Amino acid sequence: MASCFISSILFFSAIFVFLSTTPSFANINSKNVTSDRVKNICNATEPWNQPRCYEFYKSDPRSSTADYKELAEITIDLANSDCKKLIHWLNSLAKNETDHGYRRRYLQCSKHYSEAREKLDAGKKYLEAKKFETVEDLAANAIEDSNECIADFAKVNTTSTLLNKAKDFEFITSFVKPAVELSRKSDKVTKKPYYYTLQLILKKWVFHP
Ligand SMILES: *[C@@H]1O[C@H](CO)[C@@H](O)[C@H](O)[C@H]1NC(C)=O
Ligand SMILES: *[C@@H]1O[C@H](CO)[C@@H](O)[C@H](O)[C@H]1NC(C)=O
Ligand SMILES: *[C@@H]1O[C@H](CO)[C@@H](O)[C@H](O)[C@H]1NC(C)=O
Ligand SMILES: *[C@@H]1O[C@H](CO)[C@@H](O)[C@H](O)[C@H]1NC(C)=O
């Protein structure tokens, strides 16, 4: 009876240990939480905007476990997909518009966002190559492209929907910079110091000429 009791305890403990160490079990709840890394990136914006920033990272399930470089990539991906939607919307607006002046402006705007998208695509490649400064510059240029779209409308009558969509795009894209900056810092920390490499080479040379 006693040994039966003890083996039951052992059996259930084993199940508990198994379940709690299985990654999928541990991750079920973490998918929907904001990681400290995301919080550090979102800290770049004003406190009242931070919940909006968290929500936007939550829309990509990779965010909860991503490191800074992956978060920079996610940020670019989210900005890119928002930009793609904006282009489709602008093209559709232009198609429906009967006023020639407005139609031309919508198409012009769509072109600015196509340029912004090219910069984001390039930014992703430079991120892969760890050319962090270039990624930051490209993201800043993509935001400028969006500003140019709005500037083209400023003299006439910018629709508030367009303004809001442009601001959303700029909001998302503004987090590329802090994400890249934190990637750069964490890359420096994990990189082995120079003398370490030198030591390895010397060792090889001295002991295995
Ligand atoms: C994540 O949390 C939000 C509220 O914070 C909720 O609306 C959403 O359904 C949750 N998603 C999952 C997958 O649990
Ligand atoms: C968040 O930003 C504020 C002001 O920019 C700064 O003082 C604070 O140290 C930052 N917090 C973290 C955790 O980075
Ligand atoms: C353009 O018109 C089509 C058909 O009338 C409509 O479905 C679409 O939503 C319109 N596009 C925009 C951006 O308003
Ligand atoms: C501003 O735009 C709206 C919607 O496109 C239009 O109905 C309105 O007439 C425009 N106003 C002026 C002053 O052009």
TrEMBL record:
Q: Which GO terms describe its molecular function?
A: pectinesterase inhibitor activity
Q: Which Gene3D superfamilies match?
A: Invertase/pectin methylesterase inhibitor family protein (1.20.140.40)
> One Pfam match, by short name?
PMEI
* Keyword check for Transmembrane: no
Which controlled-vocabulary keywords does the entry list? Disulfide bond, Signal
Q: Domain (Pectinesterase inhibitor): give its ranges.
A: 33-179
InterPro entries from the UniProt entry: Invertase/methylesterase_inhib, PCW_Enzyme_Inhibitor, Pectinesterase_inhib_dom, PMEI_plant
Q: What is the designated name of this protein?
A: PMEI domain-containing protein
SUPFAM superfamilies for this protein: Plant invertase/pectin methylesterase inhibitor (SSF101148)
> Which residues are the signal sequence here?
1-26
Q: What organism is recorded for this protein?
A: Heracleum sosnowskyi
Report the CDD domains cross-referenced here: PMEI
Q: Which family does it belong to?
A: Belongs to the PMEI family.
**Origin superkingdom:** Eukaryota
Per the record's keyword annotation, is Signal included, yes or no? yes
Looking up PANTHER family in the UniProt record yields: PECTINESTERASE INHIBITOR-LIKE (PTHR36710), PLANT INVERTASE_PECTIN METHYLESTERASE INHIBITOR SUPERFAMILY PROTEIN (PTHR36710:SF4)
